[in-house]
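forwarding from the other thread:

> can someone predict this with magnesium ion?

sure thing
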Amino acid sequence: QKFVYDFTEGNRDMKDLLGGKGANLAEMTNLRLPVPPGFTITTEACKVYLDSGQEPPALRDEVSAHLDALERRMGKRLGQADDPLLVSVRSGAKFSMPGMMDTVLNIGLSDASVAGLARQAGDERFAWDSYRRLIQMFGKTVLGIDGDLFEEALEAAKTAKGATVDTDLGPDELRKLVKAFKKIVKARAGREFPQDPREQMDLAVMAVFDSWNGDRAKLYRRQERIPHDLGTAVNICSMVFGNLGPDSGTGVAFTRDPAGGQQGVYGDYLQNAQGEDVVAGIRNTVPLAELETLDKTSYDRLMQIMETLENHYKDLCDIEFTIERGQLWMLQTRVGKRTAGAAFRIATQLVDQGLIDEAEALRRVNGAQLAQLMFPRFDEEATVELLGRGIAASPGAAVGKAVFDSYTAVKWSRSGERVILIRRETNPDDLDGMIAAEGILTSRGGKTSHAAVVARGMGKTCVCGAEELDVDTKRRRMTVGGTVVEEGDVVSVDGSTGKVYLGEVPVVPSPVVEYFEGRMHAGAEDADELVVAVHRMMAYADRVRRLRVRANADNAEDALRARRFGAQGIGLCRTEHMFLGERRSMVEKLILADTEGERTEALEQLLPLQRQDFVELFEAMDGLPVTVRLLDPPLHEFLPDITELSVRVALAEAREDHNENDLRLLQAVHRLHEQNPMLGLRGVRLGLVIPGLFTMQVRAVAEAAAARKNAKGDPRAEIMIPLVGTVQELEIVRDEAEQVIAEVERATGVGLRLALGTMIELPRAALTAAQIAEAAEFFSFGTNDLTQTVWGFSRDDVEASFFTAYLEKGIFGVSPFETIDRDGVGSLVRSAAAAGRATRPGLKLGVCGEHGGDPESVHFFHEVGLDYVSCSPFRIPVARLEAGRAAL
Ligand code: ADP
Ligand code: MG
Ligand code: MG
């Protein structure tokens, strides 16, 4: 097994073995770009080290051989006293990760070689500056010494000299600083700073390996769902020096604007500096464009290299470079991060430049980015005070009055105030407040904190872990720097950027939503570039996708919006939403009915109302399928709350004021009360025990369809029976439904072809899908309930209680209610789909439930061969895009 690869031996496809940095250094080397020579120790070596506690026995010799070759090539030995070869030791995992060990530069310098370096460079200051940097970085990252100690010593030296920037320090001061740094090392690490160059290098390599299992790195991996067993590579790269005077420097650049996507010169440059100086904000950088006047030759070469990289990677790249006395060196490149908007713009720009085709462009964007672009956002022009910044945990733009406890949040929101709930961290007791608030802001916790998880589940704006905010819940205020925010002060929270503002920031609608709504046209002359890009990607996704996309919608208004957003029908119309409001009293009557007559009366009152609902819905979705689900929730949801009612009855009794109806209601509430309503009298069970309920609903659908046909419409109703566990349930309901439909056909003289199908949302239904398909013309997987019943989780309870613990422990990377659990729930979907189709080859298969609009899950549903997904109207564009990506 080979553990070390020269930069000339790797390429960009070897990220697993060489890490991202190493693979791309190799790629640039092969492109004959000026990369300082070096080699990469593989992730495999790291894994052996982490598993066994020792580096693989062969590693030392292999490193020696590569180091020898490097030394021969450079004509000097590592740390050679009169002319030292220096190297950097750089971590580089497959994914870049905060918390991993930083890079150590200038390895090879020692008391002996610092003089040699000074002589060779003809620059004392430079040599001692490099040495102090080595001790500082090595002390901090390899020996684990508090970095502030070095910073303080550096500041003291500057103050003593009256210097404002570190370049003002001369060789003498730097020599003294080295002495001070070495003292710090001795005192804190209990050992001398190692003088042997190879020992320096080996210790640094091992420290990189160890940092893989550092707490911060582990936490980050859990949050980002990066596997823990990848290990990191280590790059050994010969040093080039940007701190050799004014004709040297270091910089970072993007091949195009990562925020907007435009091509141009984007980056920063810092003269006479090394490594991180440019990003650390130690001195003021200049815009990259100024390099043209500072060093035209290097600038031109850099522009040329950036073009080479873009053409080669066919994507936006970010780069790190250094200029050593007029000679340009490339130190890093990778395909760069970008904003959601830039992702769409860049993808289409690259198509227009002929660099990639449309299929590749579609791979470069995703549904999560599209969803982000659909949230309303804060007006960028607005001038407001930025209070601080946290983790963008759940997107959206929320404005409201600051409140610091759940009780106040609920109280104020009831009186019509918009509030932002601000907590140090949230816990299950804050749930009511979170529901009441426009947005949630916490000063602690990451992407898997309670606040973040619950807010995402509710689709509510959330910024968490804004550490600068000092939240004092007792005194109902928070302080940020010098600013005090009291209860009632207005704050604005941007869940897409993590920024928190004082005062009200105006919210503007997303141009992408304006486009989907048809209020903005991609064809217009002055069309927004982003809108055009989204339009093109959507058109392409629609062309290639196989999955159809339907909407979950219960009324004509939602149905029309869904159509504008591209829905190809309704996959779930929840009829219980038609039983609310003033109709609740009719439902009450139905539940309280003692006699056949009372029941029929109640049903007859409901029938015309339901029919009218369906007429409107079928009209809105004319020509497209509409799946109507018969009544699903437990009946007590339509009755008054048991405690409230008991109190009311008790008070009335005390006044000796008998209310017959309330008494009957209370009896019914008691009768219908269930310990476990989710597993109780609901779904098909209602249809089987309450005579006439389902047949009334079927009649309403059939009569509405007949009415639409008579009006020359094209209704395509499908009737769906929920919560079926066995084919017998379905058969009984189906037979009754068919009779009703036949009656309506006879009475109206209109031929109706209504499809009858079922939801698959219980494990037993999935397991007996072959039998159920005998009686069903379609299946719709109800993955919300299926997830609840397969896991034995009650969604309403568990997300707020123990899911954060599960996420933190890595039991699952994401809530199974957010993304389908492929292995468990998913495998039931897969086998039920296959079994159903084996019985009935033309069986139509779909999914309704949150998962229908989740990118990951859409790919899964494509894979298992479903015909459509159904999701809320706002998720339709996301589902369309991802269905297209799944088909690539
Ligand atoms: P990070 O992953 O944090 O970007 P890097 O390994 O890229 O860490 O290094 C940190 C800084 O040191 C970067 O600015 C990089 O350009 C610089 N650097 C790394 N190796 C060398 C080298 N051999 N010569 C000069 N500068 C280097
Ligand atoms: Mg870097
Ligand atoms: Mg259900």
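The mean pLDDT is 93. thats all i got for now
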